[in-house]
Each structure stands twice: as C-alpha cells, then as structure tokens.
Design brief:
Blueprint lengths: L6 E2 L2 E2 L8 H12 L3 H9 L2 H8 L9 H18 L8 H19 L7 H21 L5 H8 L3 H10 L9 E3 L6 E2 L11 H15 L3 H12 L4 H8 L3 H18 L1
Antiparallel strand pairs: 1-2, 3-4
Length: 257
C-alpha cells in the first residue's frame, strides 16, 4: 500500500485544504439547512482526516485508492449525522465513523468468509459490551454479555473470534533494537518438534533394514496411501500375502526402533 502516494482517486493530497474549527461549524450549519455546496466544501476540507485514518491500515495489502474511497463514505456519514448541539469536535466524531466504515469493508471483502448470522451475533455483542461499559464504567465479562443477549456463552466467544482480523505470522510483536520477535515465534508447531524429527530418522533407518519387497509394500501403503488390493495388483501377489508381509515388516520395524 503506497501511503505516501500524492494523488489518490484523482485528488492531489498535497494540496488539500485545512478548515478552522469556526469555518467547520459554519459549514455544518449550512449543511443542516440543505446547502449542498457547503456539504461538498466540508467533505473536501476533511479529506486530510481520511488520509490520516487510512495510514493505520497500511499493512493490509489493500489498494490505497479503495480505502480512501471507503473512508470518504465514512466521512460523509459523519457529516450527515453530526449533532451540532453536542460539545464535541467534528474530528472526534468523524474518526471512529471512518475507521468503522473501513473495518466493515475489510471484513466484507475478506477471503475468510464469516456467515451473516455469526456477524450479527458479534455486532450485537459489541453493542451490548459498549452499553454495559457506559452503564457500569467497567469492562463486562462474556457471561454478562451472554446474559444480556440470552445466548450461550460459547456462541458469543465463537462469534467474536470469527470477526477478528487475521494477522500475518510475520507480524512483529516486540522489538528492542535487536532482532524482532514475530507472531510465528510464539506459535508452537507440534509437527516440527525434536521428538517428531527423531522418530522420522528412526523410521528411515528401520526401513533400510527391511528387504526390498517389505520396503516397497510399506512405502506404497503408508507413504503413497494405496490399499492392500492396489499394492497386490501392482507387485503381482495376493492381497492376503500383502497383508502378511505388511504385518511382518511392521513387527520387525517395531523391534528395530
């Protein structure tokens, strides 16, 4: 993603205007009165805000033009819904709206598809969570959220996990000036443990001590995934003989290992 790109969607970002708070308020009043030119001026005067927000999503591999357009949709929603009676700066209200619109776009266009019903449960859980934080001034537990929605605790956990954005295994999680620690460094891999590696060596050494026919049968059965019937047809003996030789070879290998 080219976050330093000068022209985005035909807009020269280096020449974007900056509006004063008083000018912003004057334009918002005109927008409430139905002045469409004031709305256009307000949108254009806040494109720098959109640009600053999309910088946060520079590691997603998305085209900056697409994110900029989606961010502009969030900006327009913020302009249309901003309450002038509230003593809040417009940017304070607009930034979460822009971020929310971009996150929604990223979720909906994610290659990992999440069912609509699961997303609905997750969004309801997040709404309940925000309401409980406002009411009790503390983070609610999963049990409290589940109780409010009258849903099983497990369903809430599953739904919230499903909408989490995936991260790269090469995402750095710590850096002290030396070599960084990545996510993959904190993930265990049972397939690559020393015991598994040693078992592989033992199996190869034991296989080497079998005769040619026994090695062929075990290779075809357990490395190529063929049935005893397929092995019998290929090497020209009966299935019963294959079965006998296979059992004898495995028994021999077990002793060797």
């Amino acid at each position: 993603m080219l976050v330093n790109k000068v022209e985005i969607c035909g807009v020269n970002t280096s020449k974007l205007p900056v509006l004063s708070n008083q000018k912003m308020r004057e334009l918002l009043v005109k927008v409430r009165a139905g002045d469409r030119s004031a709305r256009e001026q307000l949108i254009h005067g806040n494109l720098r805000l959109v640009l600053s927000v999309i910088q946060r999503f520079n590691n997603r591999g998305e085209y900056v033009d697409d994110l900029f357009q989606v961010g502009c949709i969030g900006l327009m929603k913020a302009i249309d819904n901003f309450d002038l009676s509230q003593n809040v700066k417009f940017s304070t209200y607009a930034v979460p709206m822009i971020i929310g619109e971009i996150r929604r776009y990223l979720r909906d266009n994610n290659s990992i598809r999440v069912s609509r019903s699961l997303r609905d449960v997750a969004y309801k859980a997040l709404q309940v969570r925000d309401a409980l934080v406002t009411k009790n001034s503390k983070e609610p537990t999963i049990n409290e959220i589940a109780e409010e929605l009258n849903l099983p605790r497990e369903e809430i956990i599953y739904a919230l996990d499903a909408i989490q954005d995936p991260i790269s295994l090469f995402e750095p999680i710590y850096h002290d000036g030396g070599d960084p620690i990545f996510v993959m460094d904190q993930v265990s891999d049972e397939k690559n443990q020393d015991t598994t590696w040693l078992e592989g060596i033992s199996i190869r050494e034991a296989m080497e001590k079998l005769n040619e026919r026994e090695r062929t049968i075990l290779r075809m059965r357990f490395f190529e995934g063929k049935t005893q019937m397929e092995v019998a047809e290929e090497i020209g003996i009966s299935q019963a003989q294959v079965s006998r030789l296979e059992k004898a070879a495995l028994k021999h290998m077990k002793k060797l290992m």
